[in-house]
Amino acid sequence: MPFDIGSILGTSLADAVGKIISLFKVDPTVALSKQIEIQELQLNLQAQIQNKLQDAISAQIEVNKQEAASSSLFVASWRPFIGWVCGCAFAWVFVLQPLGIFFLAIAGHKVDLPTLDLGQMMPILVGMLGLGTMRTYEKVKQVPGSDKLK
């Protein structure tokens, strides 16, 4: 999906300038040529933004490759660590805590077990699940470095 600066501004730059030009008595051919120039500038700006975004994405991909290829536990294992933390928190909130409260209530003990705020964790977990898919893909395709944590 191409980046559209007009979506940020609420209207296209060419339309905005066209409205301003229409307020003045300007020769229609001059006004049209200026609007065309502005549209060309806007397209060039959008192309430059797209190129910068693509460069940033490519740079992040290279960083991810370097991290995955590292033999250091602290470099290559941070994603699995976050995955385990999120998985444990998810298990606590949806399995362990409710079962603990249930069985303690059956035993006659009313206990308030600690709760976790999943509102802050869920975006991380969802993102990690997406990354987990890529990790599975890497293992299936036998990408170098993907077998270090078997």
Description:
The chain has 150 residues and is mainly α. It has two domains: 69 residues; 78 residues, no CATH class. Helices cover 75% and strands 0% of the residues. It is built from six helices and no strands. Helix 2 packs antiparallel against helix 3 and helix 5 crosses helix 6.
Key features of this structure:
75% helix; 6 helices; 150 residues; single chain; 2 domains; mainly alpha
Quick recap of the structure?
This protein has helices at 5-9, 13-22, 28-69, 73-76, 78-106, 118-140. It is mostly helical.
Query: Main sheet, how many strands, which sense, barrel?
Result: none
Structural class: mainly alpha
The share of residues in helices is: over 70%
Which blocks of ≥5 consecutive residues have pLDDT under 50?
Answer: none
**Count of helix runs:** 6
**Can you write the helix and strand succession as a string?**
HHHHHH
> How many structural domains can be distinguished in the coordinates?
2
